Amino acid sequence: MGSSSAAPWKQLLLSSIQANSHLKHYSYFQLRFQDDGDKILINTDNRSRKIDELKHCPFAEICWYFTESWEQFRINGSVDVIDGTNPDPVKLEQREKSWFACSPKSRLQYMAPTPRLPSLSEPPSEIPSLDPSIGPVAAFCLLVLDPAQIDYLNLKSNERLIFTSGLSSDGKKLWTSEKVNP
């Protein structure tokens, strides 16, 4: 159907988010892109099981369905796990930037007890405090999803588009799109 160096699916997704923004249940995933590119940034707790799974198999998929517009996006690609042990200073700077982009209340969740461990019946005796000027705590992890393929399905218009990334002859990322039968 066509090809472009800009991510043609990105504007489609942003338009769908905007059109469905009045629905409270759609906002459980905050979409952030890396510096005007098409890589998706995700904050998470490195104590969760998904981090070990991604280190063994660095691929994931985000499935996003908009109930009112009947649109579905399946975004899959490779995931870069950036925790405090990452040796790349540029990636560590990106992690820190994501940390400070979070609200102080959001940052506190990374000081909570380890996810998936049983809670004690009595409340903790000490509420953790957080110095807002200090960088990321050890539990804070940044995931960077580099989309390889986006499958867009609109059930109202019976339209399906597949966007696939590749490399141009000069090594730059290139997107192709194909209209397929739903």
Mean pLDDT: 88
What does the largest sheet look like? Answer: 8 strands, antiparallel
Unreliably modeled segments: none
Estimated structural class: alpha+beta
Portion in strands: 25-35%
**Treating each run of at least 4 consecutive H or I residues as one helix, how many helices?**
4
Q: What is the chain-wise order of helices and strands?
A: EHEEHEEHHEEE
Give the proportion of residues in helices: 10-25%
Distance between the termini: 16 Å
Helices and strands in order:
Layout: E1 2-4, H1 8-19, E2 32-33, E3 40-45, H2 49-56, E4 59-66, E5 71-82, H3 89-101, H4 104-108, E6 140-154, E7 159-167, E8 173-180
Antiparallel strand pairs: 1-8, 2-3, 3-6, 4-5, 5-6, 6-7, 7-8
Description:
It is an enzyme of class 1 (oxidoreductase). Pathway: Cofactor metabolism; pyridoxal 5'-phosphate salvage; pyridoxal 5'-phosphate from pyridoxine 5'-phosphate: step 1/1; Cofactor metabolism; pyridoxal 5'-phosphate salvage; pyridoxal 5'-phosphate from pyridoxamine 5'-phosphate: step 1/1. Keywords: Flavoprotein, FMN, Oxidoreductase. This is pyridoxal 5'-phosphate synthase. Its cofactor is FMN. The protein is an alpha+beta fold and 182 residues long. Helices cover 21% and strands 35% of the residues. It is built from four helices and eight strands. Strands 1, 2, 3, 4, 5, 6, 7 and 8 form an eight-stranded antiparallel sheet that branches. The longest helix has 13 residues, at 89-101. The chain is globular and about 55 Å long. The two termini are 16 Å apart. The mean pLDDT is 88.
